[in-house]
Specification:
271 residues, 26% strand, six-stranded mixed sheet, CNF1/YfiH-like putative cysteine hydrolases, 15 strands, single chain, 24% helix
């Protein structure tokens, strides 16, 4: 499941050529090539972070043009750090694209089998999880921060794909996009104890340097959740890029102290 960087005008984005050959557009933007200024420089795509909405909308339109769709085909969810999954169809086209008022409320993942709908979510350290079943022609996009990871949003997304679209677990492919790496995600003793109580593979995902310092590997946690759910290991890919280590390329909520922009993960079925 190889990934590569692609340049389109002023924009550089991560993409999955193998999925594109099968009729799926998957992309993850960087922080460069847009119109925002200040701590949001320059390709901020989040309407909820305190940036001027005008450049944010210009940035969204630029990304849509670069990837080949209009904002009337974009669908966005609220991203509340939960585990609710929305089933999306053509009636949802444009939801959340131009305003926070009509996002899909209360959910962190979206699933669809409708072509030319572009599921879009926004990130600055949380992990984007891209799902694709080439047999049933079903895609899903999930937002997995530490809370969503703890709540097993990946598992919840798979359950909707199998129950609502009759997907078979062994057919589903999953790509884990950029997010905060374990070297940058330190947790305190209380959270360490909480995480240890959630996962049987706790010794693999938490590294303790001493009694006061531990780090949590969110990427590996999601990978192991997917494997526990039955996804074959060869069907799971990851770019292993840390958003906090690479602030020259990505927005990072933790590294910036909380005031920063958002990248976009985009996933759409092509006709």
């Amino acid at each position: 499941m190889n990934w590569e960087w692609r340049q389109r005008g002023s924009l550089t984005f991560l993409t999955l050529p193998g999925w594109e050959e099968l009729g799926v557009k998957a992309a993850f933007t960087t922080r460069h090539g847009g119109f925002s200024t200040g701590p949001f420089t320059s390709l901020n795509l989040g309407l909820h972070v305190g940036d001027d909405p005008e450049p944010v909308m210009a940035n969204r339109e630029l990304v849509g043009r670069s990837l080949g769709f209009g904002l009337d085909r974009m669908v966005c969810c609220e991203q509340v750090h939960g585990r609710e999954v929305a089933v999306v169809d053509s009636r949802h086209a444009g939801r959340g694209a131009c305003s926070l008022d009509d996002v899909l409320m209360g959910c962190d993942a979206m699933v669809t089998d409708c072509p030319n709908l572009f599921l879009t979510a926004f990130f600055a350290d949380c992990y984007p999880l891209y799902f694709f079943d080439p047999a049933k022609r079903v895609i899903a996009l999930a937002h997995s921060g530490w809370k969503g990871t703890a709540l097993r949003i990946a598992e919840a997304t798979l359950k909707v794909m199998t129950s609502e679209f009759d997907c078979r677990i062994k057919d589903i492919r999953v790509f884990i996009g950029p997010g905060i790496g374990p070297e940058c995600f330190e947790i305190d003793a209380q959270r360490k104890s909480q995480v240890e109580g959630l996962f049987t593979f706790r010794d693999e995902i938490i590294y303790s340097y001493n009694e006061n310092r531990s780090v949590w590997d969110l990427e590996l946690t999601n990978r192991l959740i997917l494997k526990e759910s039955g996804i074959p290991e060869e069907n799971i890919g990851s770019c292993r890029l840390c958003t906090s280590c690479n602030q020259d390329q990505f927005f990072s909520y933790r590294a910036s102290g909380g005031r920063t922009g958002r990248m976009a993960a985009v996933l759409g079925l092509l006709e």
